[in-house]
UniProtKB/TrEMBL annotation:
It is found in: Cell membrane. It comes from Prauserella cavernicola. InterPro entries: AAA+_ATPase, ABC_transporter-like_ATP-bd, ABC_transporter-like_CS, ABC_transporter_ATP-binding, P-loop_NTPase. GO terms for cellular component: plasma membrane. Residues 1-228 form the ABC transporter domain. The keyword Iron does not apply. One of its GO terms (biological process) is response to antibiotic. Pfam families: ABC_tran. SMART domains: AAA. This is ABC transporter ATP-binding protein. Its main location: membrane. It is a peripheral membrane protein. GO terms for molecular function: ATP binding; ATP hydrolysis activity. Keywords: Antibiotic resistance, ATP-binding, Nucleotide-binding, Transport.
């Protein structure tokens, strides 16, 4: 994607498998939203090839669009509708396309229950709290039972209970409905819990592609080993926690207690990747990009 003489995106290449959950991460201005909008068909790319469900998003028709679900960061043009009425109305648009692909839209009451809005089904959208409105945004995005779902900061404004319920819904969509999900989030803990694979975008290009564990190993990020012995507490950082623990038991055996191994979080790995890229260490980024294939 080029704006004037500036390449906002270049060489962005990845493939999403059916039923896979991908998290697209990156600092502000990295090009995440532009990438998503190109895939959704909302923005025309400057060059390259894009294929979503067998079609070019730049020319996808109504049947193709009915196979997609989109949850934007915010959507505020439905305030006077009541929750159940709005979802029932939107579902009617998908009915003819659902019959054509044997994937009918959600039953409205099942959908309301799935997103946790049963008690608020007869409320006007304008009367919902921020978290409840966000749940409604999610319901609108999945009402047609999409085959590919785009989620942009989906749990913004959710309390911990609502976030946990949403995570269960994402797993249900990917596991039971084989929905392919591409989400952007600044919540790295959420990405680690939800995503089968992590894509890191920086400087307009993908610098990492792999599972959270594979990326962590490719960056040789230290794990923290904690244990007790003879009433004393010890902490040690190691790039090979397994070998260190094996040696620890070989030396001290049953004297070791309260053993914990804390591997690097996705946040640790992500920060290391971005710092390496921004400092010009593109070899580290290249190693992480290949990490899933090793």
């Amino acid at each position: 994607m080029r704006y004037g003489t500036v390449d906002v995106l270049r060489g962005v290449t990845f493939h999403a498998r059916k039923g896979e959950v991908l998290a697209l991460l990156g600092p502000n201005g990295a090009g995440k939203t532009t990438t998503i909008e190109i895939l959704e068909g909302f923005r025309l790319r400057s060059a390259g090839e894009v294929d979503v469900l067998g079609a070019d998003p730049a020319s996808g028709g109504e049947l193709w669009r009915a196979r997609l679900g989109v949850v934007l960061q915010s959507w505020r043009d439905h305030g006077k509708w009541r929750v159940r009425e709005l979802l029932q109305h939107l579902g009617t648009y998908y009915e003819p396309y659902g019959a054509a692909r044997d994937r009918p839209p959600w039953n409205v009451d099942e959908l309301v229950e799935a997103v946790g809005l049963t008690e608020h089904a007869d409320k006007r959208a304008i009367r919902l709290s921020g978290g409840q409105r966000r749940r409604l945004d999610v319901a609108i995005g999945i009402v047609g039972r999409p085959e590919v779902l785009f989620l942009d900061e989906p749990t913004a404004g959710f309390d911990p209970h609502a976030r946990r319920e949403f995570h269960d819904l994402v797993h249900r969509l990917s596991d039971l409905d084989d929905t392919t999900i591409l989400l952007t989030t600044h919540d790295l803990d959420e990405a680690e819990k939800l995503a089968d694979r992590i894509l890191v975008l920086a400087g307009g290009t993908i610098i990492a592609d792999g599972t959270a564990d594979a990326l962590s190993r490719s960056m040789s990020t230290d794990a923290e080993v904690r244990w007790s012995r003879a009433g004393e507490r010890f902490v040690h950082s190691s790039t090979d926690a397994t070998a260190f623990v094996r040696q620890l038991f070989a030396e001290h055996g049953e004297a070791i207690s309260d053993l914990e191994v804390r591997r690097a979080s996705l946040e640790d790995t992500y920060m290391a990747l971005v710092r390496a890229f921004e400092s010009g260490d593109h070899d580290a980024a290249a190693r992480s990009f290949a990490g899933e294939n090793r």
